């Protein structure tokens, strides 16, 4: 061991490299090298480690064990996996390897890289973010097995394998693999979406029958165009494409409505307030601002609020809510009743009736927030049929006349007397409360007389 250690630190392979070393090699060094060559026959890669382990006295720590070997630390199976993993990309030659052993090791690396793929080792390297050669997986079965192995582990390794399959397989094989593995399909769609490959993303969605998603993404991309002309062109392409495909009639209607909206913006100049990216509701608001006749709207005019809402398939609730907000903010309270008047379809000659398509309490609360006068609040509160709810809402929005009406409906005479005491003397609300009390007492007296006569 001592001889070997001295020779180890003095042999020529440990000296600095020079092109003249071959001429100056010490003959004694060559003899010593020949003497030790027999020790490199088995496991020559680990010779130095074996010697250092043999010279290490660990009897005190391990009792009867006098030698610490690799097998005492790693099992044969674990050691095999370590060696296989190293051969995938570790091309650094171990120290003091003879030319014959180096040739064998290179052959083994080429064999494992090009001819005998190791599925588990490759998948583990990809999972840990290491570079692993995939060209060794040549057959379709091997490629499918590699994808299944990475799908089981997850992570970004799936995308790398999918791109390798796309590059090395024809489109029919690649799409067949995606069709059989929905999880792989979602990974690939996510990659296309994040990478910005919009055309490929839409093509894959349509190929696998996901036409609704494809149509929605195309519509979103068209509406995202900042220039009005480009947006109109994209919408026209969508209308033409889906009219021929006849796949989603509902989406085709949406495309038509959006295209009609763009043409209306160009012709009527409705987008001056909200910009070229205005929504249909915002443009309906502009139509409400420009409308001059709410009692009898001109349905032949494309900017008439009712006509615009019908063309854009805006619901009655959205139309009424938008019109209420615009008229209240414009303080055009006389038009509010016209917005909520409807003529019965089954009896056209009947007078107009109040009709609201959303919660009446929301309308009252919104009018109160917009500081509508008490007479307007009372008008809407008078349409409520539930007296208890009407009373609570009237108290919340501080509409005294509506509170009095609700108390009369609930026959709360004592509460009316108490309310009267809190009202300013000789005020309009006080007179209104006194008349309500008289009306309530008169009705009670009449009811009592009827009972006595019976």
Automatic annotation (TrEMBL):
Q: Which GO terms describe its biological process?
A: intracellular protein transport; vacuolar transport
UniProt main location, coarse? cytoplasm
Question: Where is this gene product found?
Answer: Cytoplasmic vesicle; Early endosome; Late endosome
Q: May I have one GO cellular component term?
A: late endosome
**Per its record, how is this protein called by name?**
Vps16 C-terminal domain-containing protein
Which InterPro entries does the UniProt entry name for this protein? Spe-39, Vps16_C
Query: What positions does the domain Vps16 C-terminal occupy?
Result: 155-277
Entry's Pfam families? Answer: Vps16_C
Q: Which UniProt keywords apply?
A: Cytoplasmic vesicle, Endosome
